[in-house]
Structure formats: C-alpha cells, structure tokens
Design brief:
Elements (H helix, E strand, L loop, with lengths): L1 H50 L2 H10 L4 H13 L3 H14 L4 H13 L3 H14 L4 H13 L3 H14 L4 H11 L4 H8 L4 H12 L4 H11 L5 H16 L3 H11 L27 E2 L6 E6 L9 E8 L8 E6 L5 E15 L3 E7 L7 E4 L11 E8 L6 E8 L9 E14 L1
Antiparallel strand pairs: 1-4, 2-3, 3-10, 4-9, 5-8, 5-10, 6-7, 6-9
Length: 428
C-alpha cells in the first residue's frame, strides 16, 4: 500500500514537471513567433519609412496589429501620400497603444490641423506639451495654432518658451509678432519680450530693416554690451542697416553707445591711428577694404610725438574704382569745415596717384564737397594738407575717401609707399 502511494506521488510530480515543461516550451514558441512577427513588422515599417511604400506599412500592421510603431509608420506614410483622413485614424491608434510619446501626439496634432480639426489639433498639441514641456516643437506648433486663431497673448506665451529651447526660431517669431502687432513697435515688444542681449540686437536689426530707426537704437541700448562673436556681428548689421537707410544720427547713436572709443560729431575717429584698424569694421571707424596689390599696416612712427600712422604699400595694378581707405563722419548740415592731415611718401610712382576727397554719404553717385588744393607730393618728409568744404543743406554725413585718380592708360600700376596721419576736422 505504501509503495502504491509512493508510486502515485512520483507519477504526479513527473506529470507536473512534464506539463510545466510543455507550457514553458509553448510560451517560448509563442514568444519566438511574436518576436519574429514584431521583427518582420519593424522591417516592413523601416522600408515604408524609407520608400513611402504603403504596401510595406500595411504588411507591418497585419503582422503586428498591436505594435504602435507599425500604426505610427503607416500614419506617416499616409500623410506623405496626402491621405490625411486615413492618416488620422492610424495616428490615433498609435497614441492609444503608446500614449506617452510626445512626438506621436505632435504628428497627430499637425495632421488634425491639416484636415481642419483645430479643436482636435489643440488637444493633441497640449498633450504633446504636457509630455515634453521643455521641447521646442510641441510649444511652437501649439503657439502657431493659437496664433492663427487670433489668441495672440496665449500664442506668444508658447512661442517664447519654444524659442527658449531653440534660439533659431526667434527670427520667425519676430515676423509673426510684426503681423500680430499690425506693425506697431510697442505692441511687438510686448509680444516678444526679448530678454537677452542677442534677442535685443536681433530685434534692433529687424526694426532697422523696416525703417524703424529710433526703435532700433532703443533696442541696441537695451541690449547692453555685445560680447560674443554673433552679438558683435548683429550689432554691425544694425549700424550698417541704419547707415544704408541714411539714418545717420541714429546709426551714430548706436555706434557711440556700443563702442568704448567715443566718436563725437564733427570728429574724425582714430585720426592719429593710435588704435588698431580691422578690415571687418563697420560704422564710423576707418574702413579698410581688401584690395589687390595693396597692403596696409599701422606704423608706430607718426608725424609728431604720441602718434602713429597708417602705411599703405602699392605693388602693382591697384583698382581705380572705389575707396582704398575711408571713414564716415557725422557733421552738421550747411556748415563750413576744414579737413587737415599729414602725409609722406617713398618711391611713389604711378600715372594715377592716390588722392583724398570729401564726398557726400548715402548717394548712388557721391558728390565731391572738397578736394586737395595741391597733390600729395613725393616727399619722404611729413607735410601738412588741407581740404576746405561745405556740407549740403540736408545731408549730415560725409565720407573721407582715399582713392586713385583716373588713369589714361591700361594697365596703370602703382608702386611705392604712402603714410597718412593726424586727420582732423575743424568747423569754421
């Protein structure tokens, strides 16, 4: 009897072990089948993405109907094929199966917006923002939808947060703000609320290009000191835009507010060349373009103590058109002035020597206001020169321009060295 019980017990455990093994094997088989189906589905999804092939997307969803990735891929494929209503169905299924991925809600919102369901799009964008509150695109898309609905305050709350995550969006936000503000500058500033130096400067450039000179200068002043390479470049753009628009007083105000060397009216900046010159300089400093066969350098020796000079060395065919050295100077209109400077040369030989004129600024064809009363002599000693001129009735800025006179022969090379220093303007 005891042996029978022991046998039955052993048989029970053997059957149980066999059953468990069978169940495990069955589950492994099912898992391997499911894994194979999922793997094949993902391969079809990948092919559908690469080639926008709807058949491949259909195969992916058939193989793995519970895979959110398959439905998401099919939805995007339908979007690419402009079958938007069908795409919405697939994207809704994707977010149902995988509700915690922000980008699926984002694509659902964009697609709903395209089919005209703004309320559905709004809900999808808000869910995307909830899932990814620091990401730019969910807030940007939500802001754009609110903007098109005319809810400007809410829209720019979202757009500003998007820009905080992606600075490249600021330019587009300014354009949207300009339209929303109906080109009213105070309203625009309230919508944008620029909070960084670069944003203030970008807004200044935006306003300068739209002929809002006074507002542009106000933004430059609000920006504070430009420090990064990008900020300095944008500041240069602002000043150049103001000069191009002939807003010389505003350009000068922006210049003196942002440069450590103050450039006053009726004053040549760095006339003794004690400060360096950059070939990328803009505004009211010396402009020294890159010119073939002409090299320039600051010479530590000037005509008098505590001055330096600029040395220009000519070594061949130097262009006759355009200035070789120039400076924009802000003056008073309808006044008499005298420009004085010092010059010397060494072995300067050419049929078209360099000369200095004072011309009007901002005109397609500059008018000469004054020129040298005598040519620059070929002398190794420093000699003084003067140009008397009268500013125009309305124009308040002039350009001191070094250039070559017209040559009667071609080619017309120039060789030798020219030193210049002690540029000064006096009001008569």
């Amino acid at each position: 009897m005891r042996e029978s019980r022991s046998y039955n017990k052993k048989l029970f455990f053997d059957i149980a072990r066999f059953a468990i093994a069978a169940i495990v094997m069955f589950l492994c088989f099912r898992l391997s089948i499911d894994a194979a189906r999922t793997g094949s589905s993902r391969l079809y999804s990948l092919f559908a993405i690469i080639s926008s092939n709807l058949d491949a997307a259909d195969s992916a969803t058939r193989l793995s109907p519970g895979d959110p990735e398959a439905h998401y891929t099919r939805g995007l494929t339908l979007v690419n094929l402009q079958r938007l209503s069908e795409a919405v169905i697939e994207l809704r299924e994707a977010v149902r199966l995988r509700p915690h991925h922000y980008y699926e809600w984002l694509d659902l919102g964009v697609t709903l917006d395209r089919v005209g369901d703004q309320q559905g799009a709004l809900a999808a964008f808000q869910q995307s923002v909830t899932l990814a509150p620091t990401f730019a695109q969910p807030r940007w898309q939500l802001g754009n939808l609110l903007f098109r609905q005319g809810q400007y305050e809410k829209a720019f709350n979202e757009l500003r947060l998007a820009v905080k995550s992606d600075q490249t969006l600021f330019e587009t936000m300014m354009q949207l703000g300009w339209a929303a503000a109906n080109e009213d500058v105070p309203t625009l500033e309230g919508l944008l609320q620029p909070g960084t130096t670069e944003h203030h400067l970008r807004l200044a450039r935006f306003l300068a290009r739209r002929h809002q000179a006074t507002a542009a200068v106000a933004q430059v002043l609000a920006a504070g000191e430009a420090q990064s390479h990008a900020e300095i470049g944008i500041l240069g753009d602002v000043i150049n835009e103001l000069i191009k628009s002939k807003d010389y007083s505003e350009a000068h105000a922006a210049w003196i507010a942002t440069h450590k060397t103050v450039s006053e009216r009726d004053h040549v900046l760095n006339g003794d060349f004690m400060s360096p010159i950059s070939q990328t300089e803009t505004g009211f400093n010396w402009q020294l373009p890159v010119v073939a066969n002409l090299s320039a350098a600051i010479d530590p020796m000037g005509p008098v103590a505590n001055t330096r000079s600029i040395k220009l060395q000519f070594s061949g065919e130097v262009p006759q058109a355009g200035p070789l050295l120039s400076q924009l100077v802000l003056l008073e209109p309808d006044n008499r002035y005298t420009l004085t400077f010092m010059a010397r040369t060494l072995d300067l030989v050419s049929g078209a020597p360099p000369v200095i004129d004072v011309v009007t600024a901002g005109r397609d064809v500059p008018a000469t206001l004054g020129h040298l009363d005598r040519p620059i002599s070929n002398s190794a000693a420093w000699e003084p020169y003067r140009i008397d001129f009268t500013t125009a009735d309305k124009d308040s800025a002039v350009v001191i321009s070094l250039h070559r006179i017209r040559c009667n022969q071609t080619p017309c090379p120039i060789f030798g060295k020219l030193w210049l220093s002690e540029f000064k303007i006096n009001k008569n």
